[in-house]
Amino acid sequence: MQKLLLVDDEKSVLSALKRNLMKQPFEVFTAESANDAYEILATNDIQVMMTDFKMPNESGAELIANVSSSYPEVVSLMLSGQADYEQVVDLMSSKSIVKFIKKPWLKSDLVNAVRQAFTHYHQMNHSSWQQRLNTSSFCKAQHEFERLLAVELGKKQKVVICLLNLTNTTDISEKLGQKACEKLQSDMISNAHATLPTGCFSYWNSPSSVVFCFPGFDHDTCLEILTKLRSHIVRKARQHSPSIQLDMRIAYRTIDKCFTTLEFLLEELKQNLNTTNAFKPTLNIDTELSEKLARERLIRTSISEQLNDGKFSLAVQPKIDLSTNLVDSAEVLLRWEHSTLGWLSPEEFIRLAEIDGQITELGSWVVDRSVALAAMMSRTSPTLKSISINLSSRQLYSDSLVSQLKHVIDKYDVDPQKIELEITETCIAQDIEKVIPMMTSLKQLGVGISMDDFGAGSTAYNYLAELPLDILKLDRCLIKDLSASKNKQTLVCKLIECCHSIGIRVVAEGVEDHDTLDILRLFKCDIVQGYVFSPAISPAKFTNMMLQQPFK
């Protein structure tokens, strides 16, 4: 927890300051005099102090001077009236304080000033922390690390560079205080030196990460070393403070003299740490994986820009009514022609968008464009019953989904019955109790709802009767090789009968051959979607298809 000390001889001012700083991520201490402030500073890890300029016995300026001498890491703010302005300017010129807050203050100015002071504190102490930690025989300064690295690479041998990161440093600092946290980390790494082979060296490149160099080691040996290193550090941390749980991640890569720069390499390792987890905390970045992760980073960083540049588009796949061989409805599918990578698979970019939250922006765009398409097709293809839109998990569980959908329906003046929302079985199963009222609210708008990919997840059959569903879509895993499996045929047949008995229509997706089509027709499946009729096509081609019905 960030700790803030407020010093003022007027209780009313202290109360007003505390009120204005409520709900901020600061632990606030108050003192009515300089002596009170010294007592608090002696027993608490204060990072930022705000003091009034005029106080009896010892002024704010004298207090700041003494604190700067005894606690140089503390960042000071001055609170004062206009009359004290010139003296305060002198203090700022001497860099004794970082900000002057004038009475009366605006709440927003006060909060911003305190936040900036904490930012200044972390930046200031980051560099000094590095300097203190990188002075041992094991932890070098960065320039010395780079010099030794160049020497090792000059020996024409491969070198392993490893980035070890403690991802929960902030939590540890809040529990122990920064000084104790710093000592813990320093002790851990110093003790870890005993587990490492001769010739290894390192440096702290941030308060939460250390860079190691292992000259002349092969992959298997390096992995063994890193596993022992991680176990040793975790054990030392528990001895130091049993309540502390370390979340430690490691990424490493073998390099030779042809590598680019240390800065670029460390940035790559840092980016790739995001792919590690508590179950697989150590990651070897070989060339193949490095290229894969670089591609994924390019995709993730391109989404927003290329969405605005018109690189995303919608395709439409028809759903055919087996009783008439006419197009009943259609599913909207997202497509992306990347400016440098070409056409990307939705399975690839949607997965990445879900990982970092960009699926929300993509999903909103798809909903808007799909409803606009439904409005247009209501005019060009009036027999088309509906356009179905896939919802992500983030969209489904968003409190704004219903209002957003209503806004878009009103915006394009479309009949809500022309809209169908496809929600995957897995998404629904995440929180059945929450999703039922959400689906009910969506139904009240007049839209249809289908459960997508049924059979690929783990939804219990009894939920089919509870969910406000119009359509059940059988996953392709149930449809694939249907003609060759009697067990699958029995299961699919009973599923269709069950759904019909409770008023739910059934769509079979992924149908690719006529043998499967004939079986589904025999089972009285309502609708079929798949290559046997048509792949996903452009809206223009879909409009022409509507004029060429029925399918033969």
TrEMBL record:
Pfam families: EAL, Response_reg. Coiled coil: none annotated. InterPro entries: CheY-like_superfamily, Cyclic-di-GMP_PDE-like, EAL_dom, EAL_sf, Sig_transdc_resp-reg_receiver. Keywords: Phosphoprotein. Residues 3-118 form the Response regulatory domain. It comes from Agaribacter marinus. GO terms for molecular function: cyclic-guanylate-specific phosphodiesterase activity. CDD domains: EAL, REC_HupR-like. This is EAL domain, c-di-GMP-specific phosphodiesterase class I (Or its enzymatically inactive variant). The modification 4-aspartylphosphate is found at D52. One of its GO terms (biological process) is phosphorelay signal transduction system. Residues 296-550 form the EAL domain.
